[in-house]
Amino acid sequence: MGFRHNLLALQIAHQRTSEILESISDAFYALDTAWRFTYINRRAEALWRRDRKALLYSDYVWQIKSVLSEGERAIQAL
Predict the structure, then answer these.
(1) pTM of the predicted structure, to 2 decimals
(2) Degrees, nearest 5: CA angle 35-76-73
(3) Segments of the chain assigned E as strands
(4) Which of 23, 24, 54, 78 has its CA 20 to 30 A from that of 43?
């Protein structure tokens, strides 16, 4: 059971998580502690019109910060 069992369980969990994040209609992304993208779903990729492979582990978040801030202000105004 050991290592192989744990690895398989981790792979299944990763697949399920990816399927969920790809199926939602909202843009979703995750950042690491250095503010680099570690995950970008299809909706975010389409919204930003950028290839997610090019964005992963980049600091593009600083280039779109003003767009995100405008969205946050719009939500707060509701």
Answers:
(1) 0.67
(2) 55
(3) 29-31, 37-40
(4) 78
